[in-house]
Design a protein that fits this description.
By secondary structure, the protein is of the alpha+beta class. Among the domains are: about 100 residues, Arc Repressor Mutant, subunit A (Orthogonal Bundle), CATH 1.10.10; about 80 residues, Serine Threonine Protein Phosphatase 5, Tetratricopeptide repeat. The chain is about 60% helix and about 10% strand. The chain has ten helices and seven strands. It has a four-stranded mixed β-sheet with strand order 3-2-1-7. Strands 4-6-5 form a three-stranded antiparallel β-sheet. α7 runs antiparallel to α8. InterPro entries: AfsR-DnrI-RedD_regulator (IPR051677), BTAD (IPR005158), Sig_transdc_resp-reg_C-effctor (IPR016032), TPR-like_helical_dom_sf (IPR011990), WH-like_DNA-bd_sf (IPR036388). GO terms for molecular function: DNA binding. This is Bacterial transcriptional activator domain-containing protein. Pfam families: BTAD.
Length: about 250
């Protein structure tokens, strides 16, 4: 059982208390508050910004009272999983998640796992790097839950790009250690998120060839052409065309 409190923003919003989902009303004020704070876990958010987002039609005084009531309610629900500490702390008029007290955010753990994977890979610890990359992509249960501001939209796209890049690197790493089935699985997972990624199509083609499934590799090329034509009305990149010709004429060199 996981200790502490984990706020999940990758995929459907969820709060886990010692590993078990906490019952919160979907789209309710508690979810809005924790979701907003989880977008800025290190720096927190000013009180007036919070109440404007969560209680936009309430005057400042009553809205602040609502905020104080809500933070107290969340303390009552979660403090026992945090050694008695509150999940939200505030200094003067600034509110933030109590990261030091045991509150965790999946976005932070996702990015930390990627950074650790990069470091381990650069040190030559390939097996440990693979485990760290796999932890990162497992944490990515879906795109960042929607929020009504541009900064959240930009963050959503940044994290999505980080996941896709990590999946591509993980597939390359698996291929480099001759784990062709894992490389194939990872590249297909990448394509399930972004079917237009030609590097992933090429990895699928190469993996199929190494697994002895040349015909499937050729079919993957055809699928790649269909997707790109339907989405953008463009042909595959020269690198994809070269790989296709090599698979057709000399698959032993793939």
């Amino acid at each position: 059982m996981s200790a502490g409190v984990l706020i999940r923003r990758l995929g459907p919003f969820q709060v886990l208390k010692t590993g078990s989902p906490l019952s919160l009303r979907s789209g309710g004020k508690a979810e809005q508050l924790l979701s907003c704070l989880a977008l800025h876990p290190h720096i927190g958010i000013h009180r007036e910004t919070l109440v404007e987002r969560i209680w936009p039609e309430t005057s400042l005084g009553p809205a602040i009272q609502c905020l104080n009531t809500l933070t107290h309610s969340l303390k009552m629900q979660l403090a026992d999983a945090l050694g008695g500490q509150p999940p939200i702390v505030h200094s003067e008029s600034h509110y933030a998640l109590n990261l030091d007290g045991g509150v965790r955010v999946d976005v932070l753990e996702f990015e930390s796992a990627i950074e650790t994977g990069h470091r381990l890979h650069s040190e030559g610890s390939t097996g440990a790097a693979i485990k760290s990359y796999e932890r990162a992509v497992d944490l990515y249960r879906g795109d960042l839950t929607p929020a009504p501001d541009i900064s959240a939209l930009l963050e959503r796209e940044r994290l999505r790009a980080a996941c896709l890049t990590t999946l591509a690197r993980l597939a390359d790493t698996h291929f480099g250690v001759a784990a062709y089935d894992r490389a194939l699985e990872t590249a297909l997972r990448l394509l399930a998120i972004d079917p237009c990624r030609e590097d992933a199509h090429r990895m699928v083609m190469r993996s199929y060839v190494r697994l002895g499934a040349r015909a499937q590799a050729l079919r993957q090329y055809k699928l790649c052409r269909i997707i790109l034509d339907g989405e953008f009305a463009v042909a595959p990149e020269p690198a994809t065309e070269r790989l296709f010709r090599l698979i057709r004429t000399d698959p032993g060199q793939v």
